[in-house]
Amino acid sequence: QQPVQSPQAVILREGEDAVINCSSSKALYSVHWYRQKHGEAPVFLMILLKGGEQKGHEKISASFNEKKQQSSLYLTASQLSYSGTYFCGTESKTSYDKVIFGPGTSLSVIP
Amino acid sequence: DGGITQSPKYLFRKEGQNVTLSCEQNLNHDAMYWYRQDPGQGLRLIYYSQIVNDFQKGDIAEGYSVSREKKESFPLTVTSAQKNPTAFYLCASSTTPPGAAMGLGTGELFFGEGSRLTVL
Fold first, then answer.
1. Which chain B residue is nearest to residue A99, measuring alpha carbons?
2. Which tens digits make up the pLDDT trace of B28-62?
3. For A4-30, what is each residue's pLDDT tens digit?
4. A103 upstream amide cis, omega within 30 of 0
5. CB-based contact B5:B111 (threshold 8 Å)
6. Residue B17 C-alpha, separation from nearest chain A C-alpha, in angstroms
7. Whose CA is closest to B92, among B44, B59, B53?
8. What angle do CA B48, B49, B52 make, to 5 degrees?
């Protein structure tokens, strides 16, 4: 089952912060985050393997709440280059050999 | 340079024709995947393979077929049975993530540049 992402779309001014949420109805083994720019392939941001894990990638970080089967991606002091569609991908504990992606969150950063 | 190569980048097909999309990787990854992308629906898994000569259906396998005769190659055939094949197709490969228990799970997915299929 596809994870749910919210919001569907967000518009930010440069320097503003944003949070993208991802939730699943299944017990999760891992959560992946990717960013895709228009017409390009998705690019890996990070994987979270353990409940409570937090990771950072420049000014982009994420957390994984295993009990709630949720993950959040935090973008701080957004830059124009952060624009794109963000996808979370989840592996369930009963099927940890494939990543199922959410529908994506479109993020636009404007000057 | 290591990576994933998909071809062709653009493909036009007449209704009723089968077409094959190529995917080759030189990353020495065991696992390979095919995803389909439609606007507003994210990436949906078609087929995946963890090892040579073995593959599994994903969520939307109907109308598609694959083979995995070599570690480097995972071609996807879109058959005439696929009712709505116009889409962007992405191939990916991965290895197990560092720190994973018992070496399980999917690591970073390395994607190809995609193949855009249009049915005329």
1. B106
2. 999 999 999 998 778 999 999 999 999 999 999 99
3. 999 999 999 999 999 999 999 999 989
4. no
5. no
6. 26
7. B44
8. 160
